[in-house]
């Protein structure tokens, strides 16, 4: 499992202008089976995406295809996570 930690590099008005494209991208990656959770950081300085990918290279490719990253208004840190424990109902997190 991978966690993408996005950090905004531009003012929120520039982020908001790209939000429709970002949401379409999230939905497409979910439909393709990659993303299973996402949301904003609080305070609103970026976001988090929980993803399944077959390799770090694939995860990096996905993270770098985010319209926010492509436009240079955000950067994304890709963190690989190997859960040692998951609660009942969250077994998919084990990959």
From TrEMBL:
Protein name: YCII-related domain-containing protein
Family: Belongs to the YciI family.
Record organism: Qipengyuania algicida
Pfam families: YCII (PF03795)
Domain YCII-related stretches: 1-81
InterPro entries hit by this protein: Dimeric_a/b-barrel, YCII
Protein origin, superkingdom: Bacteria
